[in-house]
Amino acid sequence: MTAASPWWTPHIHADRRPRLMARNAIANALRGWFSTRDFVEVTTSALQVSPGNEAHLAAFATEAIGPDASRQPLYLHTSPEFACKKLLAAGEKRIFSLGAVWRNRERGPLHHPEFTMLEWY
Questions:
Q1: Is 23 exposed, middle or buried (0-12, 13-18, 19+ CB in 10 A)?
Q2: If you placed Cys at 120, which of 14, 62, 96, 99 could pair as Cys (CB 3.0 to 4.6 Å)?
């Protein structure tokens, strides 16, 4: 195999597996910490009808195509904050979200457009 081998070949994946295991341990530790403090984990919808109000954040746009070929613009969420705050308004007291978010125009050596965010209230 060459240096351009896909990441899923066993010898390439072996180099990445320690990071995979560390990420898993971190997620498990976070979930355990919140669980012992009576937080409820919530999973918010990734697709939103609005890109959000933060002028400094750029959302990825897509569209949903219905069975009748109608099109609805949608956006990948840049944060679970708005959905979490709706749950707080509905009466939830202690919630957290650990999941993927997307931010367009944020790419560099230390930034990737898709990343994992932890948010809690």
A1: exposed
A2: 96
The Cα 33–Cα 19 span in angstroms is: 21
Helix/strand/coil percent split, the chain, to 5:
30, 30, 40
Q: Which domain does 46 fall in, by range?
A: 38-120
In this structure, are residues 31 and 98 in contact, taking their beta carbons and an 8 Å threshold?
yes
Please indicate, yes or no, if residue 82 is contained in any of the structural domains: yes
Nearest to 88, CA basis, from 98, 76, 96:
96
> What tokens were used for 16?
């990445």
- pTM given for the model: 0.84
Residue 58 near residue 103, CB atoms below 8 Å: yes
Per-residue DSSP letter, 60 = P
The answer to the question of residue 89 being in a domain is yes
Q: Is residue 55 part of a domain?
A: yes
Using DSSP's 3-state secondary structure scheme, residue 30 falls into: helix
User: What are the two backbone dihedrals, phi and then psi, of residue 52, each rounded to the nearest 5 degrees?
Assistant: 100, 165
